[in-house]
Specification:
Layout (H helix, E strand, L loop, with lengths): L3 E9 L9 H5 L5 E4 L2 E4 L20 E9 L3 H11 L1 H11 L20 H10 L27 E7 L2 H4 L3 H6 L3 E5 L6 H14 L2 E9 L6 H13 L5 E6 L5 E3 L11
Parallel strand pairs: 5-6, 5-7, 7-8
Antiparallel strand pairs: 1-4, 2-3, 8-9
């Protein structure tokens, strides 16, 4: 029997939903389906509450709410995906390589990227002595202290694990002048992230919060983590978002307020 608990889960505004189905394909767990022309939650236990589907909805019909619901059931999700025929479609490339996926997320599909060797050589010639812009340690959300001198008056950067590897100029364009917190909204507990960040925001003088995540659907959950943390903190802190493509290019970003002192 499923265990009911109070947790974060998707809510669909049927008045706003136009039945486009983009949220359905973005949901790695198969928790959503189009029924009678509207997106519907198939079963509470299929929804992990991370909100990867939200960024794909052109109507803004999806939000994360907190209510009584059956707990997320990973085993049931695997059986559900197998019935839909989605499990084999996602895993084929990885099985061929002898790999096992931790989830059925489409963002984990194998993909060959072809970086420009010439561009890399030019960058080495121009920035041969590039220096790290990391100003705090530790950086993993689970390890961050609740209070520290580097939080005071800080601009906090909440970055998904993969961003630092994908973005070729991560230190100069995103990290410079910011305090860093790193995590993965898919592989870790998003609720614990939100609680930890809320306590940090509540107990320190943090000026701004920027979220940097990859373009893959499951990574959008980091935006929900940031918004929930700010709400729980009781403070008025604007959340800005930077989205990085798998090719390393920034797809969406606010204008950087802090100018580089060296031009």
């Amino acid at each position: 029997m499923a265990t009911t608990t109070t947790r974060q889960i998707i809510h669909i505004d049927e008045d706003e939903c136009n039945g486009c189905g983009q949220c359905v394909t973005a949901c790695a767990e198969g928790a959503l389906a189009i029924v009678d022309g509207k997106a519907r939650l198939v079963r509470d236990s299929f929804c992990d509450g991370l909100g990867a589907c939200i960024g794909e909805c052109p109507q803004g019909a999806l939000v994360i709410e907190k209510r009584a619901a059956d707990e997320f059931d990973g085993a049931a999700v695997e059986e559900h995906l197998a019935r839909l025929g989605r499990e084999s479609a996602v895993d084929t490339a990885h099985e061929a390589a002898g790999e096992t996926l931790p989830c059925g997320c489409p963002g984990t599909m194998a993909e060959v990227l072809r970086p420009s060797t010439a561009a890399a050589c030019d960058a080495e010639a121009t920035h041969a002595a590039a220096e790290s812009q990391l100003g705090n340690w530790p950086v993993q959300i689970h390890l961050l202290p609740l209070t520290a001198p580097y939080y005071e008056g800080a601009d906090l950067l909440l970055a998904a694990d993969c961003v630092g590897f994908a973005h070729p100029d991560f230190h100069r364009q995103l990290l410079r002048g910011r305090t860093l917190a790193v995590g993965c909204p898919k592989l870790d507990d998003a609720g614990l992230y939100a609680d930890k960040l809320a306590n940090i925001l509540r107990g320190n003088d943090i000026r701004s919060l920027t979220v940097a995540h990859m373009e893959v659907p499951c990574c959008f959950g980091l935006e929900r983590v940031a918004e929930e943390a700010v709400a729980r903190s009781g403070k008025q802190i604007a959340v800005e978002t930077v989205i990085v493509g798998r090719d390393g290019k920034v797809k969406s970003a606010p204008e950087r307020r802090a100018a580089c002192p060296h031009g």
